[in-house]
Structure formats: structure tokens, C-alpha cells
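Can you give me the bound-state structure? Components:
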Amino acid sequence: GQNIDQPTEMTATEGAIVQINCTYQTSGFNGLFWYQQHAGEAPTFLSYNVLDGLEEKGRFSSFLSRSKGYSYLLLKELQMKDSASYLCAVRDPSSGSARQLTFGSGTQLTVLP
Amino acid sequence: GAVVSQHPSRVICKSGTSVKIECRSLDFQATTMFWYRQFPKKSLMLMATSNEGSKATYEQGVEKDKFLINHASLTLSTLTVTSAHPEDSSFYICSARGRESYEQYFGPGTRLTVT
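Here's the bound-state model for the whole set.
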């Protein structure tokens, strides 16, 4: 089976740093994605990790440890517009289509002024 | 990045009628398209995966006769909700992926309300 866990809600202050964790248990692994989704809109791609380590892209960074089944998304210099749901998704080739993603329940981040 | 469109963005229909939602990849060939359903404040639930020219693969619990999926070309997939009921009201999102790409590109979603 597949299990992807992330906190339901987080709150942070504008200008601060926030780390959103994601743990996963899947039969196979072929990459982990982070998406941002604003209410009523489709998810937008943030990052992709397939090897261990940190991927940095501007204010956003994503880390992966395959041995621990763990990833985090780090958001720096938070802005009000960062208030959104952040979805962790894992590609597990053993689940069927090699291109299929399984999504976590999402973390609703609220940025306060 | 690649662009995926969905039409309509919002639709209201009466119980018992059918609704068709289109998903198009505008600037790439989508060999695989995915259809998701999302309830308020919930994550995306995969409904089915479709490959161009072949029958869709439905997830467990998704009725294939109720949610008809047609992936007629490399740029178009359609989802038809047949004999809609109020409980079918939801946000439906498609995504598309090209042959050599690891990334899925999402459409803007369709808000379906069944009265």
C-alpha cells in the first residue's frame, strides 16, 4: 500500500521561514513532487526530487532522504501570497502506471502579517 | 511550462443529466492524461489514467460507466459524468504528461455543481 503523511495545517509570519514535512511509505519510489495549490485553482509544480539531498529554487527548497522516506519543503522570506495548500506527491512505479502520482492530503499554510 | 486547458471552468447541471469536461494539452503531446477529483479542503483523488488510443484505467471505487473517459488524441481527453447526482458535485482536475517528461501539468480545473 501507499501512505503519504503531512501536517494538515501550519501558520507562520510574513518574512519568516517555514518547513513543511512529508513522510511516505510506498512499495516503490521514482520521485517526489511538491505542488502549491491556491483555493479553487489547480496545483502548480514547485519541485521534484529523485535523489537524496537539497534542491534549491529561489525562496523554495526541497529536501529528500530516500532511506528515511522523508522530504521537506522549505519556504523562506514568506509572503502573504504563499498562503496556500502544499501537496506532497510520490511516484510509485509499482502502483500501476509509472507516471501516476499519489498525493498526500496537503498542508494548508496560512501566512500572517 | 506546458499549458493544459480545461473547459468549462464551471458548470451547473440538473440531476440526471450528463456533463462533458474537456482537457487539452495546448503545446505538447500528452501521451498520458489523468483525471482527479477534489473535495473542499481535501487532496486530489485520482479517478483514472488514460493513454492515447486505449481504454482508461480506473481507480478502485470509480464507476467506469458513470465517469466515461475518452482520450481520442494526443491533445484531448474528455470526462463525461453521466446521470449526474448532487454527490457528484466536486472540483475535477485533469493533468497531462508527455512521453519523455517526468512532470505532470495540471489544468485549471472544472467546478461541477449538480442541483
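A couple of observations. The two ends of chain B are 37 Å apart (CA to CA). DSSP finds no helices and eleven strands in chain B.
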